[in-house]
Amino acid sequence: MAQRLLHGVIDAKILEADLSIMSGGLLRPAKKTMMKRKVFSWIKKLSFCNFQQLENALGLSPTAGKLYATVDIDKARVGRTRMLDPAHSPQWQESFHIYCAHDASHVIFTVKADNPVGATLLGRAYLPTGDVVNGQPVERWLPVCDEKRQPLPGGDKIHVQLRFTDVAADWGGRWAAGVGPSYPGVPRTFFPQRRGCRVRLYQDAHVADGFAPRVRLAGGAVYEARRCWEDVFDAISNARRMVYIAGWSVNTGVALVRDPRRSEQTLGELLKRKAREGVRVLMLVWDDRTSVGLGPFKRDGLMATHDEDTAAYFRGTGVRCVLCPRNPDQGRSLVQEAETATMFTHHQKTVVVDGGVGNAGEEDPRLVSFLGGIDLCDGRYDTQDHPLFRTLGTTHRNDFHQPNFPGASVKKGGPREPWHDIHCRVEGPAAWDVLENFEQRWRKQGDGDNFLVALNKEAWAAREAVADPEESWNVQVFRSIDGGAAAGFPEGDPDAAAARGLVSGKDHVIERSIQDAYIHAIRRARDFIYIENQYFLGSSYAWRRDDGVGVDGINALHVIPKELSLKIISKIEAGERFAVYVVVPMWPEGVPESGSVQAILDWQRRTMEMMYRDVALAIKARGLQADPRDYLTFFCLGNKEAVTPGEYMPPERPEPDTDYLRAQQARRFMIYVHAKMMIVDDEYIVVGSANINQRSMDGGRDSEIAMGAYQPAHLATQNRPARGDVHGFRVALWQEHLGRDAAAEAAQDVLYPSSLACVRRMNRVAQRHWDMFADDAFRGDLPGHLMAYPVGVSHGGEIVETTARFPDTKAKVLGAKSDILPAILTT
After folding, report:
1. Is 527 a catalytic residue?
2. Is residue 347 annotated as a catalytic residue, yes or no?
3. Dihedral class, residue 469 (left if φ above 0, else alpha if ψ from -120 to 50, else beta)
4. Among 206, 347, 386, 812, which one carries the catalytic annotation?
5. Where is the C2 domain (predicted)?
6. Catalytic annotation present for 309
7. Could you tell me what percent of the chain has a pLDDT over 90?
C-alpha cells in the first residue's frame, strides 16, 4: 500500500478489544517466533525441564499474561497502554497525543500479553494512512490479524478512535508562526509555562577576562557574558535554608572559583561549611552500578563519576548524599529492568538554593536554580580560549581531564580535553518547578519527606514574579523521567496522566516533555535554528533500509532530526530561506577507535544522511541549483596551539605510536561539545541536560531536565528583528567559535542567520579552520575554533568520505556498526 506523509499530530484512543478466550481463560498467541521455537527445542532435550513452565515463560503456549496494546506508525512504536488483567473484553479507554513525522502506509494497533521474558503477540490491526490523512475523525472496530495479515479465526477485534491533524492546521503548534507574545507554552506538559521569571545564560563554566562579546541589544544595551561557576559558588555561599544538588557526577575536590584574587575552596569544603551553618544540604548523585570497588574500575566506575568517593566524603557529616541508581519502574520485563539499571543514568544537573539574605539584612524568599549541561565535577572548568597545553601548570594543574587516551595524565602532558558547555540560571516561578523536580526525586529515591525544607511555596512564588516587562522571561521546565525516579505522577488514571503529557506504558508512567518542547520549537520556527549538542542521532525509522543494517530494530525513534528536515523542505517548497546549524563534537567522548564510539558515529552518519537526502530531494523537485549545505550544515570545534615560552614541561611522555603521542606532537585536539541547547529565530532557547538521542528523549531511559524560555518584550516584529538576550547569547557563542578576526569580518552576516550569505560565510570559515587544523605543516595557533565536520555531502544528499580517519587517530570518521554492543546502549 502507498505511503503517506503523516506530519502533525495524531490524537488516538484505544477503547477496548474483543478477544478469543480458550478453555481456562487463556489467550492464544498469534505467533510462535522462530527464536523461541529454537530455544524451546534445544532446552526441551534436558530431562529436568518443566515443559509447560518453559512454554509459558517464552510465550509459546496459550497465555494468561497481562494485556496491553501499542500504537505503531508502520514499524515505529509511538504509543503503549497500561497493562490489564486478561479478559475477553479488556477496557483500556486510553488516549494518546502523538507528534508524528512519518512516511507510512498504516497505523498499526498491536495486542500483546506480558511475559517474564518479553511478550506474546496476540495480533495486529491495520488502519490505512489513506483513511486518516484527510483529517476526518475515524472510529472503527478493526479486525485483529495474524502475522500473515489474516483475521484471527476467533473474530478478534479492537475498538479505536483516531484523528490526524496536519502540522499546517494544528492551532496549538502554529506552524512557522514563531513564538508570539501570546504563546501559552508547550501544551500537555507536567509543568506549565511560568511568567515573570529571570534567566541568565552561560557559555562555558567560566568567562575569561579577555572575552568581551561585542553584541548590541535592543534599546542600546550591550550583552554581558556571565560566569557560571562563580555564580553557583556565590549562590551556595549565600544560602540560609537549603542547598539541593542533583547530578550525574559531583566531585568534591573541584574548585568552582579559580581566581587568585579570591579564596579557592573546594565544592566539598563549601557544602560541609554550609551544613555546619545549619543549611539543609541534600544531594542526589547517580549511582554508577559499575563502581563497586572491585575489578579494574574500582571506585570510579566505567564512567569515572567518583560516586562512591563522593558518598564516602560526606559520610558522617551534615551533608546528606544519596546515591541513586537508575531504577526501573514497575511493570517492566526482567530484560527491561536489567537494561534500565545497568545501561541508563540519572543525567540531570541542577542546583536549587534559597536566596539567602537581602541587602537590608532580611531573609530573601527567592529561589535560585541552575540547570543545563555542566556537572559539578572534574574536567568541566574551561573558558572561551579552550586551551590544550597552556594552563596545565596553572588553572588545570589539579584538573586534568583526557578520557580519550588510555593512561593520560598531567604528568605525561597535554593535550587536555577542552570542554564547551552551556548552562543557565532561573529565578522566579519556574525555579519552583526545578525545586519540585528535586523533591519528587528525593521522595522516590532519597528519604521520603524526611529532611526536605518546608516552604510556603504559594506565598513565596507570588512575591518573586518580575514586574518589569523588559526584564521578564517566560520559562517552562521540561523533563525526561518516569515513575521509577520521581514520585507524584498520577497512577491508575490514564486521562489525568494524558492531560499532563504523561504516557502510560505497561504499568509505568513516563514524561518526555523535552522531546515535545523541541518538536514545538522546530515547528514554530520561521527563519533559522541553531543547535549545539553532544550527540545528534535519531528518527531511525527514516534511515536508509539498503545500508547494511536492519533499522527496524534500532528504536532511536524520536522525531527531532526528521522534524528539522521537514521544516527545511517546507521552506524550500515555499521559496523561502531557512537555515539549520548544528555543532557536535568531533567524536563522542572516549577512545575514538572503540566499538561504542564507532557505533555512535555510525548512527550519526545515518541520521545526517537521512536529513541531507530529504533536503536534496526538495532542492531537485524545486529545480534549484543549490548545495544541501546551504540549508543544513554540521560543525565541530577544535583547537591547535603553538609552543609558548615557559610552558609546563611534563616529566613523562606518552607511550610510542599512540593517539596520545601523535596529538601531543601535533599540538591539536577537539574541543568537546557537551552543550545541550537549541536557539530558534533568536527568540526562543532550550537549555538542559538532554542530548539529541533516544537515551535522553525517551523518558524511560536517562533522566533529564531542561527549560525553554523567551523574553516577551524582545520578540521579532515586522519592522524589528529579535534583539534580546537570546540573540546576544547566540552571537556571543558565534564570536567565541569564529575567533576574533573572523567574527569581526562576519559581524553583519551573523545578525541574519537565515541568509544564504551567513550560511556560506560560516561554511567557508569553518572549512578554513579545518584545513589548518588537519594540516601537519601548520604549527601556529588556530585563529578560531569552528570547523567543518569532516564529511562531504553529494548533490543527492549522500554522506561521502573526505578524510578516512580523524587526525592523529586510527578512528573512522564515518564510524562502524557494532555487531556486539546492543543498539539500546549507543542510541
Report:
1. no
2. yes
3. alpha
4. 347
5. 28-142
6. no
7. 78
Query: Does the structural domain 512-826 have CATH classification 3.30.870.10?
Result: yes
Catalytic residue among 159, 676, 785, 812: 676
| From 382, 399, 681, 682, the catalytic residue | 681
- Does the annotation mark 396 as catalytic? no
Whether a cis peptide bond, with omega within 30° of 0, leads into 406 is no
pTM: 0.94
Pairing of strands 508-512, 502-505: antiparallel
Q: How is 103-172 classified by DSSP, letter by letter?
A: EESEEEEEEEEE-SSSEEEEEEEEEEGGGTTT---EEEEEEPB-TTSPBPTT--EEEEEEEEEEGGG-TT
Q: Are 160 and 139 in contact (CB under 8 A)?
A: yes
CA–CA separation, 7 and 4 (whole Å): 9
Each domain of the chain, given as residue ranges in start order, spans 4-169, 197-477, 512-826
pLDDT of residue 332: 52
Mean pLDDT of 580-591: 99
Give the C-alpha separation, 766 to 235, whole Å: 38
3-state helix, strand, coil in the chain (%, to 5): 25, 25, 45
Q: What is the C-alpha radius of gyration for the chain, rounded to an integer number of angstroms?
A: 27
Q: pLDDT digit string (tens) for 236-280?
A: 999 999 999 999 999 999 999 998 777 789 999 999 999 999 999
Could you give the CA distance from residue 328 to residue 337 in angstroms, rounded to a whole number?
6
pLDDT digits (tens, 9 = 90+) for 282-300: 999 999 865 544 344 444 4
Cα 657 from chain centroid?
Answer: 36
Q: Which CATH superfamily is domain 197-477 in?
A: Endonuclease Chain A (3.30.870.10)
Contact 372, 200 (CB under 8 A): no
Whether 197-477 shares its CATH topology with 512-826 is answered yes
Mark whether 44 is an active-site residue: no
Q: Which three cell numbers stand for residue 522?
A: 522546530
**What pLDDT digit, counting tens, does each position of 207-239 carry?**
999 898 989 999 899 999 999 999 999 999 999
557 closest CA partner among 164, 814, 824: 824
SS3 readout for 423-471: EEEEECHHHHHHHHHHHHHHHHHCECECCCCCCCHHHHHHHHCCCCCCC
Q: What's the rounded Cα separation, in Å, for the pair 201 and 218? A: 17
pLDDT at 26 over 90: no
**Pairing label, strands 684-688, 508-512:** unpaired
Worst-scoring range by mean pLDDT, 113-127, 262-276, 449-463?
A: 449-463
Q: In the annotation, is 354 catalytic?
A: yes
Q: Which of 7, 13, 571, 674 is catalytic?
A: 674
**SS3 per-residue string spanning 29-84:** CCCCCHHHHHHHHHHHCCCCCCHHHHHHHHCCCCECCCEEEEEEECCEEEEECECE
Active-site residue, from 157, 272, 349, 420: 349
* Domain 4-169 top-level CATH class: mainly beta
Q: Which run of H or E residues covers position 478?
A: strand 473-482
> How is 391-418 classified by DSSP, letter by letter?
TTTTTTTT----TTSTT--TTT------
Burial class (CB in 10 A: 0-12, 13-18, 19+), 11: middle
